[in-house]
Amino acid sequence: MLNIMLFSWIKTKKAPIVELDALPITHLNKRSQPMGNIHNLSVIRQCFSYISEENFCLPISDYRVRKLTTFKSIKLILASQLAKWDSYEQISQALRTSTTLQESLELSSISGSQISRRLKTIPTEILEGLFLELIGKVKQKALPSGIKDKQIRIIDSTCLKLPATLASWAYVTRDHTQIKIHVRVLVLTKSEEKEVIPEKAIPTTGNVSDYETMNLLVEDDGTIYVMDRGYVKYKQFDTWLEQKVQFVTRINENHRVWQVEQELPVDPDSNITRDAIVQLGSAFRKTENSLRLVEFLDEKGRKYRLATSCLDLSAEEIADIYRQRWLIELFFKWMKQHLRLVKLYSYDPQGIWNQIFIALIAYAIAMLIHVSSGTRMSLWEVLQSLRLLWEKPNLLLETELHRRSKSQSNKGRQRGTKIYKEPPIMNTSVGIIKPRGK
């Protein structure tokens, strides 16, 4: 009865959209010390130390729960995300066979069915708050002070397909049963490469359009928001123009120009084909305020049309800003390839929501270790090291992360792709190699 009361309260309480810059960063206690202070801890315990148990005092949710409390279940599923375990049974087996995991959780064993039930009952608001807090710490360490360049934020969504027989609540069409994750990322500019920091995530069913969530993701914070064609809505454009929100959005050929106010000069030697101040739409539906239309061709001659409120930038700069939209696609690909997002543990709505946020928490912890250690490895290499050394002392992880010397620039002998004109000679009679046809 108490649990029912708890979740009825959770359903009625809306989680506020928190600005990350205003998040209070809690002081690190003995259980959450920064990386490198305690070398003899195991790597998995060091990852757990970024989560403070003080934030998980849930006497109602954990009422009469003897073994798998909310805090322990979050840590156990977080370990499964970092290690990419395939199923509840594999999580249960890993706990039974790992003394390190048992000591970290103060739990000797648990069944897969109990893990499944707990995943569906963890309050999602708690996981969202934990994700925002960790990302706030990442931003503190990753963003240099006194940034002069305009920051760029990208918003987009990705779909996760679900089996129709197990997730009828996510039905979209006869061929599609899916959910969406609407995400906002901040572009982190480095000397040679660019990374993104996920700032907000809104899981929805697949029938929620992109433009239905863009007012929750876009804020008047002085940054430039980059969006694709799914976020075109003339009424919202007018609101942003009145609020001085800067945005760059791709539009297609169906979005016509209602009125041309000014044609701006274009360099004939550039890839820009048009730069104008216009009103978009038709007599039935159009923008009330004027915005800028930039058209350009990419390297393959494909035409792109951009609607933007940025008047102080050149057309070439606006085109370059839109090209960075691909970074969020790389982020989605990274999450699906390296964390447990393609094959879900649960097909219950709250279970899926919780798994999404625990995956984002795992990403935030890996990124926090990445930026805190100062390693030259990529984020994927850091996650690989976490998986290989998760039961080893943390000192071995620190050694591995700094294996590459800062002065080392030689990557060794680089081999190109070898093209055989004739079948290669092999010292075996096993198998058949058939020559290529001319």
Radius of gyration, Cα only, in angstroms? 25 Å
Overall body shape: globular
Distance between the termini: 76 Å
Assign the CATH class of the largest domain. Alpha Beta
CATH homologous superfamily caption of the largest domain: Transposase Inhibitor Protein From Tn5, Chain A, domain 1
Transmembrane segments: 352-371
Family: Belongs to the transposase 11 family.
GO molecular function: DNA binding; transposase activity
Pfam family, one: DDE_Tnp_1
Give me the secondary-structure topology.
Blueprint: H1 2-12, H2 43-48, H3 70-83, H4 88-97, H5 99-105, H6 112-119, H7 124-142, E1 152-161, E2 171-173, E3 176-189, E4 194-205, H8 214-217, E5 224-227, H9 234-243, E6 246-251, E7 257-263, E8 272-280, E9 291-297, E10 303-308, H10 315-323, H11 326-338, H12 349-373, H13 379-388, H14 394-401
Parallel strand pairs: 1-5, 5-6
Antiparallel strand pairs: 1-3, 2-3, 3-4, 6-10, 7-8, 8-9, 9-10
Helix pairs in contact: 3-12, 4-6, 7-12, 12-13
What is this structure, in a nutshell?
The protein has 438 residues and is an alpha+beta fold.
